[in-house]
Design brief:
With about 90 residues, this protein is an all-alpha fold. The chain has a single domain, classed as S15/NS1, RNA-binding (Helix Hairpins, Orthogonal Bundle). It is built from four helices and no strands. α1 crosses α2. It is globular and about 40 Å long. The chain starts with a helix and ends with a helix.
């Protein structure tokens, strides 16, 4: 479930730390969260799609690793991004 270019650009603009930033952990976490949400909706209707389910699990694991890295670097940044994307309440 790829994101359209406009959706991706909007997410990048919203979460970038500096102008032209596309690879910071915040941007990557936000993009992965959006893809996870779209894929979760897809899997609600297609319960036997095991290939997509495996991809979903790998995206969730990658997002978790990025959040853990960000916690090591800066706890404040990690808690802010979690609140923004709606992960921990």
């Amino acid at each position: 479930m790829p994101l359209s270019t406009t959706q991706k650009q909007d997410i990048i603009k919203q979460f970038q730390t500096t102008e032209g930033d596309t690879g910071s952990p915040e941007v990557q976490i936000a993009l992965l969260t959006t893809r996870v949400e779209k894929l979760t909706e897809h899997l609600k209707g297609h319960t036997h799609d095991n290939h997509s389910r495996r991809g979903l699990l790998s995206m969730i694991a990658k997002r978790r690793r990025l959040i853990n890295f960000l916690k090591k670097v800066d706890v404040k940044r990690s808690s802010e991004i979690e609140k923004k994307v709606g992960l921990k309440a």
